Every structure is written in structure tokens, then in C-alpha cells.
Amino acid sequence: MRFFKIFAMLMGFICLAASSRALAAEADMQAFRDVYLQNMSEAKGYHLELMFNGPTLQSNVIADGQLWNNGAAVAEGRMSWDYTDLAAGQTKRTEMPFYAERSGNVVVLYGNRGGQWQRENILEGFTWILNAVCSDDRETKMKYAATVKDVKLEDVGKGQQRMQVTFDGKELSAVEDKAVRESIAAMSEADSRDAMATVVYLNAALAASDLKITWTVDKKTGETDMVVADLTDVMRNYAKAMLQDSYDGKISLAQEEVDMLASIGYYYNLQLYLVRNKESAKKAVIPASVKNRAQEGNLFGDINSEVVSALKK
Predict the structure, then answer these.
(1) Which of 29, 172, 221, 224 has a CB 3.0–4.6 Å from the CB of 147, allowing a cystine?
(2) Helix (H/G/I), strand (E/B), else coil: 221
């Protein structure tokens, strides 16, 4: 399990800003439906912040991007991580400028390490979430709307409406399992096999978690202004599901992978903030020089040990 697969969840959960069911007050649920089921008729600019924090490693992703109604997306930003060597009492900071681009079932990350641009496919099986939520197909949206079990509305002033949305993890997992099997059917046999293996653990994590997000919209237009989500439980349950299968002998993991999953499953937190920003779309342009010169690489292979060191805290 590569380090960035924890961040890989971001693109999926960024777009999970929607759903519904009769357990909530009808007025609140109807307001939610009205916003979620509207058509996404144009490109959206957004500003993203993602925080992955634990005892020995604190990492941040800050990016500006654009999302189209066909599911394509592009982002430009900077990742940083601070690693503390507890034995030496020293902290080292690393920064990496990056671009990310999604088209079809492929998401490519371009990162600059040591002055060299490298590229890596990062989202693999998670790309289906973008397909489902960014679709303008009403039937698809209705399926996801049915997985929300509670909505609470709050008037926050300044023409904004805030919704506290709670997803039923088991129902969301069932809908997503069906969606991903349809989405990855067009992949190569090897890619689809890897994607399905990843999604099995994501679905297990979702089934064990009632995902909660805070979704703020513009009252007049219904457009999303901000999404805030604590993804810690989903991330930890993902890691624990893989660990359990390794303990049961269902999968084989290297000791470094076991240690990293244990660190993530018990010590690390993951929070996401997404803000609508029209100006962000103008910044998210990947230079041709980056695309043409980037070499295939493993951008985060050298920091697995830093994540694992949480076990020695």
C-alpha cells in the first residue's frame, strides 16, 4: 500500500457532497435533494486542503483545480510533510509541487522531487466515485441520494445554508460496489484486478463507518460553497480491514506494509476542506513541459518508514 493511496481517497470523497432518506425531517431532506439533484452544467473551480496527521508525520495538501460535468478534473498545488525523528529530536520538512489530471478511468499525479518531474497513477479503483457523483444522470444521483440517512439544516447567514449530512455506510458501500464493477469493466484485466482488490477494502471501510460531511451551499443558486469532511474513520477502517486479512492469511504483506497499515489504522487522522473558488480554475493548467519530461516514478516510496515510525512513538 503506497503512501499516497491515503490521499487518493480525497478525489472520491471530495465529490461525495450529497444524498437522502426519510429518517430526517422532510423539509431538510427535500432541501438537500433540491441541491444535489440539480444539473452540473458547467466547469467548477475549487480550492482543496487535505490534512494527514499523526505522531511523527504531519502532511498537508493545498491545491486549486477545476472539475467538469463529464468527470474530468485537473489540479495544481503543493504537498508538504514534516517528519519528526523522535530519537534524534529533529524535524525535517519536505515540499513537493504537483499537478494532477483525471480523464476517463486514469488519474495521473505529476510531482517534482529533487528538481525532477515524475509521474504516477494514484487513484486506481477510486475513480468510479467521480463518475457516480459528477454524473448528470438523474437515476445515478438518486441511488446515492438514497444512502443518506440524516440531514440537518443550519442557516449560517450571508446567503448560505449549511447541511450536516450523514451517510449510511452499509448502504453507501452497496451502491458503490455495484458502481465500481460497472466502471472498471473497461479497464485492462490487470488494472481491473488491482482496482477491485483496492475497492474491496474501501467498501469494507465504508460499511463500518457512517460518513459525515458538512456541506455549505449558496441559498439562491444551490451551488456548493464548502465541503468539510473528517475521513479518519474510513481511512483507519480501510487499513484495519487489510491488516485483518493479512492476520487471517488471506493476503500476503511485507512487514513494512503491515507496520504502515498499523500506524495509519490506529494513529493517523485525515481531514478534508473543499471551497468553491472560480479563480482556482484559471490556475490549474499543466504545462506541456511537465507532461513531456516527467518520468515514471514512485513519488512517496521514501517516506513509508516515516509513517511507520508512529509505532515507535
Answers:
(1) 172
(2) coil
